[in-house]
Amino acid sequence: MSSAFPQVLVAYGWSEDLEHAFAPHREAGLVPGRVAVVDRGRCDVITEDGVLRADTAPVVTDDPSSTPCTGDWAAVRTGEHPAVMALLPRRTAIVRASVGRDSHGQVLAANVDTVAITVSLEVEVDLGRLERLLALAWESGARPVVVLTKADHLADPDELDAVVADVAAAAPGADVVTVSPLTGEGVDVVAAVLSGTIVLVGQSGAGKSTLGNALLGEDRLATGAVRAGDAKGRHTTVRRELLPLPSGGVLIDTPGLRGVGLFDAEEGLQQTFSDIEELAAGCRFGDCAHDTEPDCAVQAAIADGALPERRLRSYRKLLKENEWIAARSDARLRAEQTNRWKVIHKAQRQAYKLRGRDR
């Protein structure tokens, strides 16, 4: 192992692969670091020599999805004016549609290993919203885990088991665990299931910060009460930050997500609704819309109770939304390509004019 290997960063996920990818930047006199917090054109970067407040201007582009975010590994210029000069390729990235619903995506966190989708049991679980978050998580390349928080609100074990069964049916392939951070019940199980760089996502009031504090072993994250009427909370977490866990790994807490739009999440949807995808393989027609076609395996499963009709409706809704944003992205790319050719053609015409004058 090289003497320059940044041992301090190992706790934040630094590896031999990252060291290899960083080699050209080290030769340029830059140092590695992991972005902990981003705000107002600057970011806090954890380096071997401590936390630097660095300018992000050198790597900012017109595409917000390529700008620095919490979890990024960066090549940093130190000295009197620290700055992020380059970002290392992301292994994974949680990307949602931008708040303005334009053709760009917004990265919530980068280089994540586990997405902990926190869902409060204080109110009825919104399975459609859960499926949306699962698609987001699967598409990122990270491993989703559904964490049902505030389990103490369901004192009846049978009722709790029924909710867990419904959630598990809506989350094929994902672990589902229950926890009550206030009593401590289930925290050890959650800690065992989550690994690597962990990001907490979910609505305000779902108990993300309370769970984060339980995993951290101290009250580092701000928490707040929820409204009595709908059990929704305020954004006690106002920015994403990265914190090392005492048992190993790194935690990223995020502000509550009120609206989560999918962005190019076709593979994530296929994984989230893998049960429907598997059933569809048994339909008579390869392009079956699972509506009134004969010998539709999906409709047959609904008829015999094996598949909830709600789940098919959710699948169709999210597919339609994803196709819409994909069409917008394609339109933007086509427009950018057209504009690029216009610039080239204009330059060529100018060159021809100048060449004619010289003759």
TrEMBL record:
Keyword field contains GTP-binding: yes
Pfam families assigned to the protein according to its UniProt record, in alphabetical order: RsgA_GTPase (PF03193)
Cofactor or coenzyme needed: Zn(2+)
Domain EngC GTPase: 110-258
EC number: 3.6.1.-
Classification via CDD domains: YjeQ_EngC
UniProt-annotated location(s): Cytoplasm
Annotated positions binding Zn(2+): 283, 288, 290, 296
Entry keyword annotation includes Signal: no
Domain of life: Bacteria
UniProt remark on cofactor binding: Binds 1 zinc ion per subunit.
Annotated transmembrane regions: none
Keywords: Cytoplasm, GTP-binding, Hydrolase, Metal-binding, Nucleotide-binding, Ribosome biogenesis, RNA-binding, rRNA-binding, Zinc
Enzyme class: hydrolase
GO molecular function term, any single one: GTP binding
Gene Ontology biological-process annotations: ribosomal small subunit biogenesis
GO CC terms: cytoplasm
Assembly, per entry: Monomer. Associates with 30S ribosomal subunit, binds 16S rRNA.
Annotated family: Belongs to the TRAFAC class YlqF/YawG GTPase family. RsgA subfamily.
Role this protein plays: One of several proteins that assist in the late maturation steps of the functional core of the 30S ribosomal subunit. Helps release RbfA from mature subunits. May play a role in the assembly of ribosomal proteins into the subunit. Circularly permuted GTPase that catalyzes slow GTP hydrolysis, GTPase activity is stimulated by the 30S ribosomal subunit.
Protein known as: Small ribosomal subunit biogenesis GTPase RsgA
Gene of this entry: rsgA
